[in-house]
Amino acid sequence: MNVETIKPRKSTILRRNSSKNMRISISEENLDLVYLINGTTLKTEKISMSDLNVKPSDYYMIINVSRDKTIEVIYDEDISLHEIVYDPCKEENAPKELLKEDYFLRNYEIPDGYIDTLPKWYSFKFTYEDFNLIFIKPDMGLSFQRHKLRTEHWKILSGKPIIICNKKVNYFVEPGSEFNMKKNQLHTIINPHLNNYVLLKENWTGEFDENDIERLFNPNNYV
After folding, report:
1. What does the pLDDT look like over 1-31, one tens digit per residue?
2. Tell me: the pLDDT tens digits for 142-162?
3. d(CA 40, CA 100)
4. Is 148 helix (H, G, I), strand (E, B) or coil?
5. Dihedral, CA of residue 204, residue 206, residue 212 and residue 216, to nearest 10
6. How far apart are the C-alpha atoms of 7 and 9, rounded to whole Å?
7. Residue 144's closest CA among 12, 39, 42, 32?
8. Beta-bridge mates of residue 117
């Protein structure tokens, strides 16, 4: 497979390149309509043709942030042979069954004192007075998002997720890793593993409001 079309607000799969250099081609008029993951960088603006060279064994993904334009992407080698790391649209048409609180209470040591929960089909959150515990379902990720009213501090408690923070992509980070997200700083977490949940502890400063989320890429179509 050498050509992909990306519908508006969709993306390619996050893949890992082979042992050769690869060239991605996107028409110059469409470069300002995409975000690009290439290696350890997420680039969201001023993408140039030189940014589309993927080094051997590097990860890559293209996101179409246009509201109405389909974009064609051409590769100079067969990407069907490349490792699939994360498919944001894998469960797009699957039933959206909310995760159950009882499952996490039975299988994990959830501290007493939580005051609320937020079940989704791809994550589950226990809310406490001054922190959140967030589980991310296997092979799923949160939206690429930012906040105007709060900063966040993440600590990975279990699993080895992919963390994007301030346009840097951190692959398969170890438990105990910590990340700081400033106001208006793009961030997300992806659980690329097929069997185990990722668990993170989220602290914040400022005003925590569930509506204070700008989703720049929303693979789960969460409203």
Report:
1. 699 999 999 999 999 999 999 999 999 999 9
2. 999 999 988 999 999 999 999
3. 34
4. coil
5. -60
6. 6
7. 42
8. 126
Structure tokens at 142: 């949160």
Counting every residue written for the chain, the total comes to 223
Nearest to 192 by CA among 213, 173, 178, 176: 173
- pTM for this predicted structure: 0.93
The SS3 of residue 107 is helix
Specify the amino acid at residue 113.
G
DSSP 18-35: -SS-EEEE--GGGGGGEE
Return d(Cα 139, Cα 86) in angstroms, integer. 7
Residue carrying structure tokens 């690329």: 192
- Rg (C-alpha) for the chain, rounded Å, is 18
Tokens of 111: 């501290």
* Cβ density class 53-90: b for 16+ within 10 Å, e for less: ebeeebbbbbbbbbeeeebebebebebeebeebbbbee
Is residue 105 helix, strand or coil? Answer: helix
Amino acid identity of residue 164, one-letter, is: I
Q: Domains in the chain, please, with CATH? A: 3-86 (2.60.120.10), 101-217 (2.60.120.10)
**Tokens linked to 54:** 């993927």
